[in-house]
TrEMBL record:
Signal peptide: none annotated. It comes from Wenjunlia vitaminophila. InterPro entries: AP_endonuc_1 (IPR004808), Endo/exonu/phosph_ase_sf (IPR036691), Endo/exonuclease/phosphatase (IPR005135), ExoIII-like (IPR037493). This is Exodeoxyribonuclease III. The active site is at residues 109, 150, 251. The record marks 152 as: Transition state stabilizer. Pfam families: Exo_endo_phos. GO terms for biological process: DNA repair. Residues 4-251 form the Endonuclease/exonuclease/phosphatase domain. Keywords: Hydrolase, Magnesium, Manganese, Metal-binding. Probably binds two magnesium or manganese ions per subunit.
Length: 265
DNA sequence: ATGGCTAAGCGTCTTAGA
């Protein structure tokens, strides 16, 4: 089974690439982030024509996540149970989970944080605490389980192209990395993909200042998996080819190949 | 050339992204 996560930066703008990439990559389960669409604007029908079911959480202009699967989509949970809202009580569309064939998976879009002294940063940390609480039971379970998505945190200094550029900025702070460590303490582990080019598996490159051609990237799209899921991993890589050219997202898909039995109908 | 941002909304700028 092939599972992937991809921040598409607008599913509407990315639709031609999304459909062709699904077909060419042979992905069975795709976790999407930054849909940037209203719920009725999600391309459910074009995906169904390719054989995929969809579970979508979206509210319009910002955020939005989905699970797209051709190996089953059961027990869907929309949103992050117990999660905080922003700017007030209402939750943003940042999480969806479901059972896809042999695995239970989440697609998450962790809040950006904006700046360290911004309310959005405190919200980011609260959101990550709620995520840890919500996944603890499944992380310790016997069934393959993983949280995939845009975590908006570089786990280590090597996960940004130049650490000095990030002094005093979000994505590299101790508190954010402690939140990732707390997630690992539930039993999850970072499935680090291999790069297809250069020496580090960056997953995001800023549109500005030739970020991609200069390989000024960050590894912030992560796969956090429990032990049964990790044991099934045969390969993992960043499909940086999808970042190339006109009409690309600023994130590349992270692809994981698993040796798991698919359900037969 | 992989190439000096991109996307959406009520929009001819503002907000957000990281």
């Amino acid at each position: 089974m092939r599972i992937a996560t991809w921040n598409v930066n607008s599913v509407t703008a990315r639709l031609p690439r999304l459909l062709s990439w699904l077909e060419s990559s042979g992905t069975d389960v795709l976790c999407l982030q930054e849909l940037k669409c209203a719920p009725e604007a999600f391309p459910t029908e074009p995906l169904r024509e390719l054989g995929y079911e969809s579970a979508v959480v979206a509210t319009g202009r910002w955020n939005g996540v989905a699970l797209v699967s051709r190996v089953g989509l059961e027990d869907v949970v929309l949103g992050l149970p117990g999660g905080p809202g922003y700017p007030q009580d209402e939750q943003e569309p940042r999480a969806v989970s479901a059972t896809c064939g042999p695995a239970r998976v989440w697609s998450v879009y962790v809040p950006n944080g904006r700046e360290v002294d911004h309310a959005h940063y405190a919200y980011k940390l609260r959101w990550l605490t709620a995520l840890r609480d919500a996944v603890t039971e499944d992380a310790q379970g016997l069934l393959p389980f993983a949280v995939l998505g845009d975590f908006n945190i570089a786990p280590a200094d090597a996960d940004v192209w130049d650490r000095s550029v990030f002094d005093g900025m979000t994505h590299v702070t101790e508190a954010e990395r402690a939140a990732l460590a707390a997630l690992r303490e539930t039993g999850l582990e970072d499935v680090v993909p291999r790069p297809l080019k250069y020496d580090h598996p960056f997953t995001y490159w800023d549109y500005r200042e030739l970020g991609f051609p200069k390989n000024r990237g960050m590894r912030i799209d992560l796969v956090y998996a429990n032990a049964p899921f990790q044991k099934a991993v045969k390969d993992a890589y960043v499909d940086r080819e999808e970042r190339r050219g006109k009409g690309a997202s600023d994130h590349a898909p992270v692809v994981v190949d698993l040796d798991l039995d698919l359900p037969h109908e």
